Amino acid sequence: MAASPGQPAGPFPEPPAARRIPSTRTHHGDTVIDEYAWLADKDDPETLRYLEAENAHTAAMTAGRAGLRDDIFAEIKGRTQETDLSVPVRKDGWWYYSRTVAGQQYPVNCRRAVQPGEEAPPVTGDGAPPPGEEILLDQNEVAGDSPFLSLGAFSVSPDGRLLAYSTDFTGDERFTMRIKDLVTGETAADEIPGTFYGCAWSADGSVLFYVTVDAAWRPYRVWRHQVGTPAADDVIVIEENDERFSVGVGLMRSERYVAIWISSTLTSEVWLLDAAAPGASPRVVLPRRPGVEYSVEHQAGPGGAGRLLILHNDGALNFELAQLPLDDSGGDGPLADPADLSTVIAHRADTRLLSADAFAGHLVVYFRRDGLTGLRILLPDGGAQDIAFPEPLYRVSPGANPEYAAREFRLHYVSLATPDSVYDADTRTGELTLRKRQPVLTLPGARRYDPADFEQHREWAVAADGTRVPISLICRNGTPRDGSAPLVLYGYGSYEISIDPSFSIPRLSLLDRGFGYAIAHVRGGGEMGRHWYDDGKALHKTNTFTDFVACAEHLVARGWTRPERLIARGGSAGGLLMGAVANIAPQDFAGIVAQVPFVDALTSILDPSLPLTVPEWEEWGDPLHDPAVYAYMKAYTPYENVRDQVYPPILAVTSLHDTRVLFREPAKWIARLRATARGGPFLLKTQMTAGHGGRSGRYDAWHEEALILAWIVTTATAPT
Hints:
Elements: E1 23-27, E2 30-34, H1 45-61, H2 66-79, E3 84-85, E4 89-91, E5 94-100, E6 108-113, E7 134-138, H3 139-143, E8 150-156, E9 162-168, E10 175-181, E11 192-201, E12 207-213, E13 219-226, E14 235-239, E15 246-251, E16 257-263, E17 268-274, E18 283-284, E19 294-301, E20 304-312, E21 320-325, E22 342-345, E23 351-358, E24 363-369, E25 372-378, E26 384-387, E27 395-398, E28 408-414, E29 421-426, E30 432-437, E31 454-462, E32 468-476, E33 487-491, H4 505-511, E34 516-520, H5 530-534, H6 542-557, E35 566-571, H7 573-584, E36 591-595, H8 601-605, H9 613-620, H10 627-636, E37 646-647, E38 650-655, H11 664-676, E39 678-679, E40 682-687, H12 698-716
Parallel strand pairs: 33-34, 33-35, 35-36, 36-38, 37-39, 38-40
Antiparallel strand pairs: 1-2, 3-5, 4-5, 5-6, 6-7, 8-9, 9-10, 10-11, 11-12, 12-13, 13-14, 15-16, 16-17, 17-18, 19-20, 20-21, 21-22, 23-24, 24-25, 25-26, 27-28, 28-29, 29-30, 31-32, 32-34
Helix pairs in contact: 2-4, 2-12, 4-12, 6-7
């Protein structure tokens, strides 16, 4: 096999050849032949042999990068303070925190009693546990010899006596709930299998509410569990039969209500249950109306039930905040009527309201404006404090704030150059107190990390329809602008998820090697408000792809890089983006990294038995019943559109137990690329003990990232 651009020279083994077994599907009069449909069965020994053969091929093809991979892993490890302590969060009489220990994969969850007169959280610079520590859960002990561990729930009862936590040991996001007595240290016998994310305690800790899924793995039931009784005796509180909707449950910060939220992509409904009467029936706040989304916060009033704060988009594209005096004197009807709502913060075309957090003495609003996030503190007397930061590109966001009576508000600040910084804001004065900044250790013989050594830029690309698309970029000071610098361009662009500027220790291994790093804030995300999302979904989805191409070509035109040095990277729905741009503009990129990529989207969205399919129809459209949507999706889905042209090298990374984007999608995609396209090479790496988020242990995750970064470095800097 001849070496392609970006591939080190040398003899390489032939890649595995997937068997071609024609399988047909017909929809709306269109018959499609899929030669690789057989790869869908992960229990088929032949499928597993094929995936292992692909892993062996990828290992052989990247063996020449082993030294670089080891170097990058050592850099990530060397810059990370392995024994570290999170900033403790106060709840009642305890400080809660997690800490990591050098050599251990997972955090240890702990608490320590608040000392008399103690106001500031006990932060230790060396990560050592503070005196008086009580270990709640050592995740390393829980994991044992398992190669994977993920927690789906971790919740201490309001009285601080019990801990509910759930575990997943495969990556399929199906958890077993357990209850631990924090006084005796004993784990109760009433184990609950098959739960989903999250849980909620009753006010007295006697009842635990949790969620389970249906046959399509859609969270659809909320259950009531009496502590100390068998799970077989549990009672269904709410069951949602509309397959577009999912359910969730949580205890509100005021601890007055258990909230049950039911939502689709475009519509939501919230039910409240008296946390002091866990056997009672919940009441709906506002009955669902198609296209209306809302969330609810409770703020108690002196001597009364207080008010509900409702963030909604009824006639308000970017959402507005309303309030409703709460009368929970009884009855089983809705708690609110839209006509009774009064506006707290009116809709603005330039500001997307994201959330509102209610406390005893203040309200904090989280918003997005001009492509950046912000926080505003509202006081009962009408006063307001905006929290401002000086850098041109950053993300500020709420932190953990479980204490309803707190005066200080915990927040996080981060930029492309500034490590994650934990602040407490005084809600009366706006004064910020830095509690901790993520340490970046100095490598032997290297300069101490200094954010001032880097440039941050906001660029604007112009899409084909004239839309200006923002780009966030970081590079070392003095990086040339003559097209010679390699650069990674990251993109996502779905579900109104914003990829805001953030710091990354692994990214430093690229920046130190002369790379630039940029984020294309393409439509389909939420960076520029709700319209930005609407313009990149369903029958406008291709805007996401053409925006990304416009960003790549803009960066080349501005001299930040050139196509032979430009790597595109994205994951999940961002992996769909990677596959789409590989088809429409392969000449623009030196290589493409696609992680857990949604590249066979049409096949998946046509199958309502698969996880997430029916709920996803509001995001992508319904190709099963709508021929126009079918035709539109077929025209852009990466797997459907692989053709005989030269593609850049592609590295696809997936996980066998991923339930969100099934492993078969990248497996089929790589097989078809090999059979149809020219260029490459096309590599597939399947994590055999992981889920959608990849490897769970931090050292395992660093090894995986080092493999990807080594591939990026050699691909972007190969002779051309």
